[in-house]
UniProtKB/TrEMBL annotation:
This is Metal-dependent hydrolase. The keyword Transmembrane applies. PANTHER family: METAL-DEPENDENT HYDROLASE (PTHR39456:SF1). It comes from Pseudomonas denitrificans. InterPro entries: UCP07580. It comes from the Bacteria. GO terms for molecular function: hydrolase activity. The keyword Hydrolase applies. The chain crosses the membrane at residues 204-225.
Length: 296
């Protein structure tokens, strides 16, 4: 490990979106929508993380990892609340109807990835199968958390967003979230390994997670673009991402693709993906995190 261990804490942040424009990256309406998809995508998923990890906790025998998982749960719950607040007080305020997208997310997490996927109660019939399904879903979380760490590191270092004079409230929201993803980046991987997860299972589930994330971002971007009167002809997600990555307001396609390949190295560990101190430095100067610290 490169970074010393430290306790994960929940920062009870709040954001005021009353002056935040829908195109929060000036002159970049489509790139703004790509990132705004996160408000629709994450609340259901992160609350599912919390429910799953609460079920996994009884199987965690290592004291430090047990504390880390509890800290992870508290942070993810706050992420879900923050982005749900943005969904209700920011996107809805700008006339965005997220109903169809949220229905897809609910189906994914409440049906396909539930304790009894598609109503198949056999997953709860034996203790062994129940634990196996918890472990498989923890492998899914480990794959997702690899990308949230990569994206968190990117947004912490994305100077192009500062040069573009991105809305400070939305930028702080995404950077606070990204910093905490970097901060707790090891937990999902370490939990999966602790529960007996294998290198092969992590690889297999990554092949499910990778295309699913791309689809959800593309679907969400299309959902937002079609409701934006300033965009007369919505472009493909690939074209938007290509142009946004060139200007630096979206991650470089090559860096995300390379991060996908890194996951398949036998010696992969998320500790090497980012630097905890960089995350903590931002959290120390984040307006929302600073207010939360003073309030507590």
């Amino acid at each position: 490990m490169n970074d010393p261990h430290h306790k994960l804490v929940q920062r009870k942040v709040q954001f005021d979106y009353s002056d935040s424009p829908l195109h929060w990256i000036p002159g970049e309406p489509e790139a703004s929508h790509v990132v705004n998809v996160i408000h629709m995508m994450l609340p259901a998923g992160e609350l599912w993380f919390c429910r799953l990890y609460n079920k996994a906790l009884p199987f965690v025998k290592d004291g430090r990892l047990h504390d880390d998982v509890q800290g992870f749960i508290r942070q993810e719950a706050m992420h879900a609340r923050a982005h749900n607040g943005a969904l209700e007080r920011y996107l809805s305020h700008h006339g965005i109807d997220s109903t169809r997208y949220l229905q897809v997310m609910d189906y994914l997490f409440e049906q396909l990835l539930s304790d009894t996927p598609l109503g198949l109660t056999l997953f709860n019939r034996t203790a062994w199968l129940k634990r196996w399904w918890i472990g498989q879903r923890c492998a899914i979380v480990a794959a997702v958390e690899h990308f949230t760490c990569v994206l968190g590191k990117w947004i912490l270092e994305a100077d192009a967003l500062d040069r573009a004079k991105a809305d400070p409230v939305l930028l702080d929201l995404f950077r606070w979230h990204g910093a905490e993803e970097v901060e707790h980046r090891n937990v999902a991987h370490d939990l999966h390994v602790h529960l007996g997860g294998t290198f092969i299972s992590r690889q297999l589930w990554m092949f499910v997670v990778w295309p699913l994330i791309i689809y959800l971002f593309a679907f969400g971007t299309r959902t937002l673009s079609r409701q934006d009167p300033s965009i007369t002809r919505p472009r493909s997600f690939a074209a938007i991402w290509r142009d946004g990555s060139k200007s630096g307001v979206l991650p470089k396609i090559s860096s995300v693709a390379t991060s996908f390949l890194r996951y398949f190295k036998p010696w992969y560990h998320p500790d090497h993906e980012a630097n905890t101190q960089e995350a903590l430095d931002y959290l120390a100067r984040s307006p929302a995190a600073s207010r939360a610290a003073r309030a507590s």
